[in-house]
Design brief:
Number of strands: 25
CATH architecture of the largest domain: 3-Layer(aba) Sandwich
Structural class: alpha/beta
Number of helices: 19
Strand content: 15-25%
CATH topology of the largest domain: UDP-N-acetylmuramoyl-L-alanine:D-glutamate ligase
Number of domains: 3
Shape: globular
Distance between the termini: 51 Å
Oligomer: single chain
Largest sheet: 10 strands, mixed
Length: 527
């Protein structure tokens, strides 16, 4: 596989820099505004006083209704006239998603901006600038997996604690949390903390220079950028060294239960910030003992780590709980965890550690751990119709999918599992074909929709059929490749049966499968 440098993927964009406030009335146009981060950037720019607009040839998305509610002008075509028309410049700068520059560096609007000397930045840089405009402390949550859930959870914990944070999450937050009538990727509060999901792809997170950072895990992903896990580890380490140099006490909250995170921490012994090491231990382990071991193991130039350890247990009813040492002194405290799976216990503990650093009271943290219901498309229950459960999940990496399978087994023991997957990008599918097949083969039945290309320049290197064949070669599950997401839903509809759990996964348009299947099931019951 050909690996591309971040500069090549972000061709035409200014390099990442420290954030600076947006000028009142500044004209900012966002290209690709239907994406999660781009929609958030456009909405945030609007709310801090810019004259924001956006366009996306893919049309409206689940992320754009809040922009439309705010009256932000949106176009569903790309046109150089968005930049300049009749000899007049219409914008002061562009913000662009790298999903577009990675495949269209010669995009017409970018070329028009270049010809007029109009600067172009990443949408992450615009989010950082909007956060700087509001002032306060930036909090960045990174990791290969779980960062959307952890970011949303942290925002929830701070809100429960009365700290009224602002933030951006790459998934939809529920209306109750964002304080509006619709789900949104943005929360606007009056408190001093601004929490952002920090994505490692092609240096996206380099625009974020937080005072408090969190790291859930460090696994190999984005094979078009990172040749191996060592490259991912190096990228996370370099980002942490960018943490706010002006902060008196930059802090990293890190999940030391992850092997990749442990590799990152091994390279940060000379880092001048403070470390909070968290870990979820097995049911037979004592969390107080584990916390003491963590404190004695991990260190930075600031000194030994502060340690938080949690013992995760699952009841016979599939409900999880955490007994935590390190949130209070002395002793341990116990709370229920509403989200299924050990991976979510880890996400919750990372969020708890960051909330504690930000000043949340322990009682509020325990309450928030128990009451957080998740973010959109993360093991989201879409419906239970005629005894058939339909779940929607953003999982598109073998490690994340395996963790989700385990969570489903905890929550729905003994039920037949349909794994319905829309692969995200050809390059990821080709690079990890065997790993995907190994995980998918653990299900009882498998359906693989056509691959969502995303930012792929080459769509010939593999196929959904090739992945289905690889699953079938394992001899444990029957896999089919019905075609588009619509065709996949139609293929599933007559085949699923009462008692089945249908887990729909993918980062592209896989949510259409869950929605369309539920429509069929409801119509079948009604008839």
């Amino acid at each position: 596989m050909i690996h591309r440098h971040a500069g090549e993927i972000g061709a035409g964009l200014e390099p990442a820099r420290a954030a600076r406030p947006i000028r009142p009335g500044e004209r900012i146009h966002v290209i690709g505004a239907g994406g999660a981060a781009a929609a958030a950037a456009c909405l945030l720019a609007h709310h801090v006083g810019a004259r924001a607009s956006g366009c996306d040839a893919a049309g409206p998305s689940q992320y754009t209704p809040p922009l439309q509610d705010a009256g932000i002008p949106l176009s569903w075509t790309h046109d150089p006239a968005h930049v300049a028309r009749d000899g007049s410049v219409l914008v002061d700068r562009l913000a662009v998603t790298k999903a577009l520059t990675s495949v269209h560096p010669d995009h017409a609007e970018l070329l028009a901006a270049r010809s007029w000397g109009i600067p172009a930045i990443s949408v992450q840089q615009l989010i950082a600038d909007a956060a700087a405009t509001r002032g306060g402390a930036l909090v960045g949550v990174a990791g290969t997996h779980g960062k959307s859930t952890t970011t949303g959870w942290l925002i929830h914990l701070l809100a429960v604690a009365g700290l009224d944070p602002s933030g951006f999450v790459g998934a939809l937050l529920p209306p109750m949390l964002v304080g509006g009538s619709r789900p949104s990727t943005v929360r606007l509060g009056e408190g001093r903390h601004f929490v952002v999901e920090a994505d490692e792809y092609a240096g996206n997170f380099d625009s974020y220079r937080p005072a408090i950072g969190a790291l859930t895990n460090a696994d190999w992903d984005h094979p078009d950028v990172f040749p191996d896990r060592a490259a991912v580890v190096a990228a996370f380490g370099a980002w942490i060294r960018l943490f706010d140099a002006g902060a008196e006490d930059p802090v990293l909250v890190a999940n030391t239960g992850d092997p990749g995170v442990r590799e990152v921490l091994a390279g940060l012994r000379d880092w001048p910030g403070r470390l909070v090491a968290v870990c979820v231990v097995r049911a037979e382990e004592d969390p107080a003992v584990a916390a003491a071991v963590l404190a004695g193991t991990y260190t930075t130039a600031r000194g030994p780590a502060t340690a938080i350890a949690g013992r995760w247990q699952v009841s016979s009813a599939g409900e999880g709980s955490l007994e935590i040492a390190g949130l209070s002194a002395p002793g341990t405290v116990t709370t229920r965890i509403a989200l299924a799976g050990r991976h979510n216990a880890e996400n919750g503990l990372v969020a708890a550690g960051a909330a504690l650093v930000a000043g949340a009271a322990m009682s509020a943290i325990l309450d928030g751990l128990a009451t957080f219901s998740g973010v959109g498309r993360r093991l989201e229950l879409k419906g239970d119709v005629d005894g058939i459960v339909v779940l929607d999940d953003y999982g598109h990496h073998p490690t994340a999918m395996a963790a989700t399978f385990a969570a489903v087994a905890d929550r729905y023991p003994g039920r037949r599992l349909w794994a319905v997957y829309e692969p995200l990008t050809f390059h990821r599918t080709a690079a990890m074909l065997d790993e995907f097949a190994d995980v998918l083969a653990r299900a009882d039945r498998v359906a693989i929709a056509a691959i969502h290309a995303g930012r792929d320049p080459d769509t010939t290197i593999t196929s959904a059929r090739a992945l289905a064949d690889a699953v079938n070669a394992r001899g444990r599950a029957q896999a089919s490749a019905p075609g588009s997401v619509e065709s996949t839903a139609d293929w599933l509809a007559p085949r699923v049966e009462r008692g089945d759990v249908v887990l729909v996964m993918g980062g592209g348009r896989s949510y259409v499968i869950a929605e369309r299947l539920l429509e069929y099931l409801r119509a079948r019951v009604a008839s």
